[in-house]
Design brief:
Elements: E1 5-17, E2 20-27, E3 38-45, E4 48-55, H1 60-66, E5 68-74, H2 80-87, E6 93-100, E7 112-118, H3 123-127, H4 129-137, E8 141-148, H5 157-166, E9 170-176, E10 188-190, E11 207-213, H6 215-227, E12 235-239
Parallel strand pairs: 7-8, 7-11, 8-9, 9-10, 11-12
Antiparallel strand pairs: 1-2, 1-6, 2-5, 3-4, 3-6
The structure holds flavin-adenine dinucleotide.
Amino acid sequence: MPRPLYPATLAAKHSLSQNTVQLDFRVEGGFDYQPGQFVQLHFSFQGEDYKRSYSIANSPESFQSTQQIEIAISFVEGGIASSLFSEAEPGLELSIGGPFGILTAPEQYNGRIILAGTGTGLAPYRAMIPVLNKLASEGTQILVMMGVRHKADMIYEQDFRDLAASSEAIEYRACYSREQSLDASLHEYPGYLQNQFPELDLSPENDLVYLCGNPAMIDDAAAALKELGFGPRQVKREKYVFSS
Ligand SMILES: Cc1cc2nc3c(=O)[nH]c(=O)nc-3n(C[C@H](O)[C@H](O)[C@H](O)COP(=O)(O)OP(=O)(O)OC[C@H]3O[C@@H](n4cnc5c(N)ncnc54)[C@H](O)[C@@H]3O)c2cc1C
């Protein structure tokens, strides 16, 4: 059965990085979701109807108090949604389908959870922050790894630095593939995030790995994890593939 569509109105738009904005949509009609899930935005552009998928970047607790979901969108040259949302002003109305996806956090985990994302692929982990705090307080080790090209592409960094500062069980690493000047004391690392894997003492018995964002990163990282003996139950992934 098709999921219902919920009416939504663009309430606010904020810049997150040189190429990424956060769109806050007020959603009506009893919408609900689990942290880590995504929605489909249904919209019209130049007389045609389209839908595009976006992860929800704020927690259900935040949604319950504001009735707004937050979406981080990186613009691509000539993209339909990119064209619409780069120009969109508060008041824009569209429909939201969902929620979808199984990139959700476990209620309990006795081991380490590694959350790896490239670009806006960090958004679903931001929605998990209250759950991550709870898991860490129960002894779960958590490593959040963000991969971008340049520092100017980084989003939601302070949220994750604050999260890591709140518990010794939580670590945050920022990986830059095209940045020269890095500060190891700030947990900044050169190269792709999957280049960190050899240092992490990864083990299928202990680690649950989440991969989200750029399909090439996910394929590379999943192949490296398979070599280490990780099965499908220990690697959760959400590829940000384009709509065709
Ligand atoms: C489950 C899921 C969750 C997603 N979550 C997010 C999210 O939270 N934030 C987000 O920004 N995006 C997310 N995406 C991607 C998003 O759905 C769109 O594909 C993206 O915004 C581009 O849409 P567009 O209409 O602007 O471009 P389109 O009109 O679909 O594409 C136009 C052309 O641009 C090129 N193109 C499209 N996307 C890219 C790209 N990323 N890099 C390089 N070239 C590209 C392609 O050649 C394409 O033919 C997600 C995708 C999936 C499947």
